[in-house]
């Protein structure tokens, strides 16, 4: 038997022994191949409104989209940092403006939307990215902190979507992006407010996608569910088994977000092993999932959390 035949036989044996893993692998390969033959949509002259874009993922995604020809609105409560990000983009000879926007205020969101409309045009891509985390156990959390987490991470999405979706529907073109988290797909200790708000964000995206499909609208949605990222928001968290669950890099995450928008992907999870984890979550009993979470160190990851100084 030749070396190639031996190798092929081993692969066939492996596939027969691990049918679930094989199916997932084949789906991922087909998806990748399909994308290779598809041309992603152009971002040239799109008007992108990104909340929380002064720092972290929002900032990195804004720069990336501007480099692809989009006009970018850096909407943030931190106007000084938003102006710095906009300047960085202008220095690259690309188009951007900074706009003050507190996503927890309907008035502020509407004012910021109007400002962007008059300077860049109607937003055609909305990225709901602004987010906060408390990192406390439920008994330590104040009611104010719980409400603020919900307002920033979830309720604000209604404000921005209601401000920008009507124009997208009229034009029958647009994209609404939800920066959620894997914490919106599974619960983690010391994150009750954060996880609940991210579950809500995932729910908003899921319903909105179906609502748009029912209306036969061409407006698209993308839900982004990453694991911990090195932006500083989750400074101090511990991660075990980094080969399985690495701390994600900001640049990698923003690249994946832009690709998902260009290829109209409805939901992305990072790292890729999360697709398997969510598949198993639906398959295995809760006690098994809880034990796996403990073994992987997920449930103690927030014990060393410091967050932004
Ligand atoms: N960092 C991670 O590990 C991680 C993991 C998964 C998901 N996420 C999500 O990704 C998104 C971006 O996170 P990041 O790591 O870049 O965080 P970050 O702290 O670096 O940036 C968040 C931005 O949101 C802004 N913001 C906060 N409150 C606001 C408000 N009321 N109005 C407007 N802007 C406001 C902040 O000023 C900041 O610029 C968040 O929604 C977060 O929950 C982050």
From TrEMBL:
InterPro entries: NAD(P)-bd_dom_sf, SDR_fam. The keyword Lipid metabolism applies. It is found in: Membrane. The keyword Transmembrane applies. Keywords: Lipid metabolism, Membrane, NADP, Oxidoreductase, Transmembrane, Transmembrane helix. One of its GO terms (molecular function) is all-trans-retinol dehydrogenase (NADP+) activity. It comes from the Eukaryota. Its main location: membrane. It is a multi-pass membrane protein. One of its GO terms (cellular component) is membrane. CDD domains: 17beta-HSDXI-like_SDR_c (cd05339). Belongs to the short-chain dehydrogenases/reductases (SDR) family. Catalyzes the reduction of all-trans-retinal to all-trans-retinol in the presence of NADPH. This is Short-chain dehydrogenase/reductase 3. It comes from Stentor coeruleus.
């Amino acid at each position: 038997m030749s070396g190639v035949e031996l190798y092929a036989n081993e692969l066939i044996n492996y596939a027969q022994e691990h049918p679930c893993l094989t199916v997932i692998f084949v789906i991922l390969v087909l998806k990748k191949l399909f994308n290779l033959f598809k041309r992603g949509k152009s971002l040239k002259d799109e008007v992108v409104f990104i909340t929380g874009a002064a720092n972290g993922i929002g900032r990195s995604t804004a720069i990336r989209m501007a480099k692809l020809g989009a006009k970018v609105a850096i909407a943030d409560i931190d106007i000084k940092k938003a102006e710095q990000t906009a300047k960085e983009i202008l220095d690259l000879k690309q188009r951007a403006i900074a706009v003050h926007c507190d996503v927890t205020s309907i008035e502020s969101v509407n004012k910021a939307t109007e400002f962007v409309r008059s300077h860049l045009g109607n937003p055609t891509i909305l990225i709901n990215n602004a987010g906060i985390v408390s990192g406390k156990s439920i008994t330590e959390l104040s009611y104010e902190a719980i409400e603020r987490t919900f307002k920033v991470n979830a309720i604000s999405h209604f404000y921005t979507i209601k401000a920008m979706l009507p124009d997208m529907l009229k034009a029958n073109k647009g994209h609404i992006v939800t920066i959620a988290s894997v914490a919106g797909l599974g619960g983690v200790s010391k994150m009750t407010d954060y996880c609940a708000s991210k579950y809500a964000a995932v729910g908003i995206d899921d319903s909105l996608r179906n609502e748009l499909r029912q209306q036969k609208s061409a407006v698209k949605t993308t839900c982004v569910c990453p694991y911990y990222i090195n932006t500083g928001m989750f400074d101090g968290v511990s991660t075990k088994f980094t080969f399985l669950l690495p701390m994600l890099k900001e640049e990698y995450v923003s690249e994946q977000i832009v690709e998902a928008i260009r290829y109209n992907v409805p939901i992305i999870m990072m790292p890729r092993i999360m697709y398997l984890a969510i598949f198993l979550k639906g398959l295995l009993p809760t006690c098994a999932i809880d034990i796996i979470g403990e073994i992987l160190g997920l449930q103690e990851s927030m014990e060393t959390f410091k967050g932004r100084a």
